[in-house]
Amino acid sequence: MKKDQADTIFANPLDKVSGFRFDQQVVDVFPDMIKRSVPGYTTIISMIGNLAERYAQSDSHCYDLGCSLGAATLAMRHRIQASNCTLVGVDNSPAMIERCQQVMAADSGELNVELICDELQSVTLQAASVVVLNFTLQFIDVAERPVILQRIYDALLPGGVLILSEKVAFDEGPHHELMIELHHNLKRSNGYSDLEIAQKRSSLENVLIPETLDLHRERLKSVGFSSSDVWFQCFNFASLIAIK
Ligand code: GEK
């Protein structure tokens, strides 16, 4: 397996900053990129393992939708005790899935892992006890989000959970600016230059669409989740748990 590289994708001035894509260049730097960009990422991954241990049911599926290199899949694989549980990782980036396959093959976990390269919107979900959307929904057209959550809710077994992590927006005002500033300060302290931060921000414009926590809670309620709330937040990054 190729060694992970440091993320320098936006380090030099680009003539034209294109819309962000999960291609081979991103795959090669992905672990470094996500750890230095998403506050609390390592904690969230580890806690997804804890939550999966608690909520995974025997004879069920646990889905990692937008699995990238399978960090959340691996965390679940090493914590789930329930018998006959199958992990399913889905990602629409062929480069991500190819590397994820190598990651899973090199891992000694015993739970069966199935990897699917497809749009998560078209994958059949069934008998699910845990569904993870760890910073994935934010990349999908806002209009498609309610349908995706409804399909997840319908596929969940009673007592099943959705773990939804997102970059979130705040209503316009001082708090909105403050959260963006605090996140950028964190990226600076993680070694990104102002140029890298600015070029990445413009690459993600219209690709990553954050919504407010209120909107996420309302949508989860409207598809049927009886309870949902934030279990982790650092600045404008949050993770919710919704229980069926
Ligand atoms: C982690 N969960 O490390 N269908 C399937 N996959 C998609 C779709 C789609 N429609 N849209 C985007 N993706 C991971 C991190 S990264 C988040 C998730 C980030 C995939 C996309 O290819 C990418 O791999 C992933 O969602 C988002 O816990 O990079 O900020």
Q: Can you list the ligands bound to this structure?
A: ligand GEK
User: Average pLDDT, to the nearest integer?
Assistant: 95
Seen as an oligomer or otherwise, the chain set is single chain
Quickly count the helices. Answer: 8
Query: In terms of structural class, how would the helical and strand content be classed?
Result: alpha/beta
Helix content: 25-40%
Q: Say how many strands there are.
A: 8
Main beta sheet strand tally, sense and closure: 8 strands, mixed
| Shape verdict | globular
**Poorly predicted ranges (pLDDT <50, ≥5 residues)?**
none
Helix-strand pattern: HHEHEHEEHEHHEHEE
Question: Ends: how far apart?
Answer: 39 Å
The amount of beta strand, in percent, is: 15-25%
Rg over CA atoms: 18 Å
What does this structure look like?
The chain has helices at 24-37, 41-55, 71-77, 94-105, 145-155, 174-189, 194-204, 213-223, and strands spanning 61-65, 86-91, 112-117, 128-134, 156-169, 211-212, 227-234, 237-243. It is an alpha/beta fold. Strands 1, 2, 3, 4, 5, 6, 7 and 8 form an 8-stranded mixed β-sheet that branches. It is globular, with a radius of gyration of 18 Å. It starts with 23 loop residues before the first helix and ends with a strand. Bound molecules: ligand GEK. Ligand GEK is lined by residues 22, 34, 66-68, 71-72, 90-93, 96, 119-121, 134-136, 139-140.
